[in-house]
Model the fold of this input.
Amino acid sequence: MFKYTNMWIIYAIIAIAILCFIVAVINKIKNWQIVHSIEKKKKLDREKASRRRISTKDKEYVLKRDNYTCQICGISKQFFDDMCPGSGDYLLLEIDHVKSVYKGGYGSDVNNLQVLCWKCNRKKGGKKSNEDLSRTITYGIHYLHPKMKSLNSYKGSDYYE
Done:
């Protein structure tokens, strides 16, 4: 009877050892999946970062191509320079992706780049299109006083009196 009781203890110890082994294998699989998903996420982040980069040469090209003018609200460096020489340098113009990186756009394609003022760029973000934003803005060159829309008409006028 004593031997028979000892066998059950041995079987219980073996069963516990097998369960511990199974739990260890499951944990290894979970850890591998976590590490693998982290590595995959890092790879996607690196790829997205490379699509986001815009070279200095491309930035200059796009600024000149778009005549230093926001492609959504129409405000421009020239507009401010005409009002007060040198003030156009204070207009914060940024290069933006027409098709956002979020939606698969690339920064290396100059046809996918445009000039936006800082305000339009923040409002557009990565999920809105130019058309969506154009319908919602309430600022820009189109909202200026009628006498100021044409630079020639406000010079020498009584607008500032």
User: Anything to note?
Assistant: Residues 93 and 102 are 21 Å apart (CA to CA).
